[in-house]
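A.,

Following up on our hallway conversation. Structure tokens first:
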């Protein structure tokens, strides 16, 4: 009996390794498919409601227009942030030069010598050319990824209403119904998780901007936008989001303003992370900071930067799906912070 359990564990480990290797090897298609899958999970209820009131083709067009509108809003926010930052760059560079000069003076007074940062014109131009080429390659890669995700998204939205019939036909012994129920429950819980994270992230971003604006910290809107994005990463993102506005306040407004910024933003993150989030989304959907970091690093290793972005949602999906089956419920308990 013991040997049978050991064999099952070994087989599960081998199967997991093979799946991870397959995901890494098929990154050009598996990663865009994962992006498209998460988007479909979010918009499918809306699509199903629209199909009850409009023709199917019109429902698909309306859903795609909504997604394009959301993408446009995100692009507009990034563009606005860039316009806000651009005029401040010379001021920030001047302040940085002053800090470097002060540091050199302090070091020379104590007999220390800081390294000299010199660069030749040819080397600088070559570096600039390489950066330009790298930027073009990054843009083309992002564009190809967007086109592939959009194509997969359209195909999934067309086929999603037929998956129940296909699964039941492929697994007629009752397994199909169990898989359909598991996928449905997982999708519903994942939608709730992502919706709650979006609302709490938006609230965190707004409050961050307000606090920075009240204290007179520069680029308040930008820090709010960064807090909104990073709040999707449990614990780690919240810590990172606090650092830039505190540093800006320290450099331009002094120690007291920096301490006030740090205290206010830290209290905000603690309240949101320990009281608001658990109450509205439940402890069963919480990740421990360690598992959150591991998921980001792991999926980043499998799929690169897009994998790091998808790391937490992917792990949440695995936890929710494992909760639906008794044999895998231990995995959900191990990965999650709360009880399943």
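Then the amino acids I'd put at each of the 340 positions:
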């Amino acid at each position: 009996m013991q040997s049978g359990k050991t064999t099952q564990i070994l087989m599960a480990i081998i199967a997991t390794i093979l799946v991870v290797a397959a995901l890494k090897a098929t990154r050009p298609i598996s990663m865009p498919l994962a992006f498209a899958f998460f988007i479909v999970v979010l918009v499918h209820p809306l699509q199903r409601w629209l199909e009850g009131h409009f023709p199917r083709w019109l429902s698909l067009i309306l859903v795609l227009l909504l997604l394009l509108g959301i993408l446009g809003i995100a692009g507009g926010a990034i563009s606005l942030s860039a316009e806000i930052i651009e005029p401040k760059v010379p001021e920030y560079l001047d302040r940085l030069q002053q800090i470097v000069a002060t540091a050199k003076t302090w070091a020379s007074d104590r007999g220390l010598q800081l390294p000299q940062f010199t660069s030749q014109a040819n080397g600088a131009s070559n570096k600039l050319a390489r950066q330009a080429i790298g930027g073009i390659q990054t843009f083309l890669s992002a564009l190809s990824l967007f086109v592939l995700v959009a194509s997969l998204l359209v195909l999934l939205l067309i086929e999603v209403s037929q998956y129940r019939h296909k699964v039941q036909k492929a697994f007629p012994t009752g397994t199909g119904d169990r898989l359909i129920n598991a996928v449905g429950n997982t999708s519903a819980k994942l939608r709730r998780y992502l919706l709650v994270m979006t609302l709490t992230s938006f609230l965190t971003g707004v409050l961050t901007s307000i606090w920075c604006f009240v204290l007179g910290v520069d680029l308040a809107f930008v820090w709010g936008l960064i807090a909104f994005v990073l709040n999707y990463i449990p614990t780690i993102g919240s810590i990172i989001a606090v650092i830039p506005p505190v540093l800006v306040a320290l450099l331009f407004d002094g120690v007291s303003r920096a301490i006030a910024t740090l205290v206010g933003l830290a209290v905000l993150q603690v309240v949101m992370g320990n009281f608001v989030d658990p109450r509205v989304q439940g402890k069963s959907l919480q990740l421990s900071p360690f598992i959150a970091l591991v998921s980001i690093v792991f999926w980043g290793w499998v799929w690169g930067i897009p994998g790091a972005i998808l790391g937490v949602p992917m792990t949440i999906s695995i936890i929710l799906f494992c909760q639906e089956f008794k044999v895998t419920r231990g995995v959900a308990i191990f990965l999650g912070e709360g009880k399943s």
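Confidence is low (pLDDT under 50) at residues 117-125. Curious whether your intuition agrees with the design.

B.
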